[in-house]
C-alpha cells in the first residue's frame, strides 16, 4: 500500500520554485484536495503573474493564465460561463492585494462562487524581492532598503479581515505551512473552500502564510522561524468568516 | 420575429444581434455613449439563458470576457473610448492567447476624458495599438443601424473562424440613432473549440490558455505563426463599399458615420458636374487596400474625411502608394462635419487638382 505518492492532479514535472520555498507544499495540498474530491476533470485553475506564473504546467486540470491582478475577474468569466465547473485562482500578495485589490474585493462582494488560494509571503518574489502590500513594518526589501516605514509606505493589508466584512464572502481562513500541524490545517481549509464552492455557497478564500527564503535572505529553517515569530503575530491564523458555521 | 422590420437604436440593434449570434456572456461597465448596450443586455440575457454582469471596471469586464472566451463560449464587452483604453491590457492578452471574442467601441471625443459627443479618434487604437505587443484585431466599421446588427454577427463568426478578437469600431452617432433594422437568421455558433478550458473530464491532457513564453525563440515562433494567420485574414477579409468610383476624378473616403455624410456630399458634387465617388472601408483591419489600388490609375485626387485629426489617412496613402494627392478634412472634439463643408472641400480639390 502506498503511504505517500504524488497527487494525480499534480503534473510530473520539475518545478521552478527556489529551494525551501513553500509554493510546492501549497500546490501539493491543492492537488490532494482535487484528487480526494475527484474533480480534476471538472476543475479550471487560473494562475496570474508572479511566482505562480507558470503553475499551469504544474496543475493537471485545465489552466488559464491571467494578467497581473486580474485572476478573480477571469475566474468570474469562467464560472459564469461554466457554472458546473470548479474554479480556483492561485495568487500571490502583490497580485491579489495590490494590483488586483479591486477585482478581489468585487469578486468577494458579488459572492462569486470561486475559491482563491492566496499566498502571503510579505514580498514580491518573481521580480526579485520588492515591498508587497503585506510587507511588515520594518521589513527590509529591495524597495524598502531601510525597512518599511509606515509613514512613507503605509501599513500592511490584512486581507482575510477585510474580506470577512463583505456579505458575499462565504468562507475566509488564514493558515500557515510552517509545521506538519499547520500544513494539515491548511489542507482542511483548502478542502473546505472547495466544498463551499461545491455547495454553491459563494466566495471562499484561503490565505496561506508562506515563506520566501531567497528574497528574505534567510535559510529555509530561518524562514519558517520568521513566519512563526513575525508573521503569525501580525496575521493571526484562524477562520475569519464561515457562513456554514452560522446558524 | 425573425425577419420583422423594427425601428431600433444602433446600440440596441447591435446588442440584439449579438444575442442572436449566440453571445452567451456579456460583461460591461457604464460609459456614455454606449450604455444602451449594457442596459439592453441586462434585460435580454436573463431571458435567453445568457449571462449579463456589470463589472467593477472596464478592466474587470474585459478580463471576464477573457475568462468566458477561454472556456469556448461567445463573449462580448462594449465601451467607449476612455474605457477601451482601460481594456487594452486584456485585449492584448486575448490576442496573445488566440481567444475569439468581441469588443465594441462606441467612440467619443478625446483625448483624456474628452467629451461625450461622437468621434472617430480611436482608429489608431483599433487598427495599430489596441494593446502592447505584436498583434491585430479584426475591426469592422458599420455605417448604419442595419450594419450595427449585421457586423456584430460577422465579428463573432470571423473571431471564431480565425481565433482572434474582433472589434466593432463605431461612434456615438450610430450608437444613438434610430433606423429600421431586419435581423438575419442566427449564425452557426457551434464551432469546434477543442483548445478551450472546459474541464478535461480525464479524457485528454489539460488545455492551457496562455500567452507567456519565457524562451525568446518560442515566443518568436508563436508571433510568426500568428502573423501567418494574419496574412490569411488579410487575403480573405477586406471589405469596402465603392460608390460611383469607376469614372471618379475625386474619391472621397470615410468610414462609419463620416461615410453617411460623405455620400450626401458626393451626390451633391455629382449634381454640380464634379465626378466624385466614395470608398467606404467596412473592415478597418484588414484595410481594404485593393479597393483603393484599383482606382489609382483613373482617380486624380483623394479626400479622406474623418471625425479626427487624421488617422485613417495613413492607410489611404499606403493603399494608393502616394501616387495621387490625398487631402484631409476632419472635425474633432465631437463636432460633426456637414455635407456642405465636405462639398466645399470637393469643389476646392476640383479647382486645384483637376486642371
Model description:
The complex is a heterodimer of chains A (247) and B (355). Chain A is of the alpha/beta class and 247 residues long. Chain A is built from nine helices and seven strands. Chain A has one domain (23-242): 3-Layer(aba) Sandwich (Rossmann fold), CATH 3.40.50. In chain A, helix 1 (23-37) packs across helix 7 and helix 3 packs across helix 4. In chain A, 56% of the residues are buried. Chain B is α/β, with parallel strands linked by helices. Chain B has two domains: 5-191 and 208-236, Thiamin diphosphate (ThDP)-binding fold, Pyr/PP domains (Rossmann fold), CATH 3.40.50; 240-353, 3-Layer(aba) Sandwich (Rossmann fold). Chain B has helices spanning 10-20, 35-44, 58-70, 81-96, 123-127, 145-162, 172-176, 216-236, 256-271, 289-293, 313-319, 339-353, and strands at residues 5-9, 23-28, 51-54, 74-79, 102-107, 138-140, 166-171, 178-182, 208-209, 240-243, 250-253, 276-281, 283-285, 301-306, 326-330. The longest helix of chain B is centred in the middle third of the chain and has 21 residues, at 216-236. The model of chain B has no long low-confidence stretch (mean pLDDT 97). The A-B interface holds A 11, 40-44, 46, 53-54, 56-57, 59-67, 70, 73-82, 85, 102-103, 105-106 and B 24-25, 27, 51, 53, 55-57, 59-61, 63-71, 73, 75, 89-90, 93, 97, 197-203, 206-212, 214. Strand 2 (62-65) of chain A pairs parallel with strand 9 of chain B.
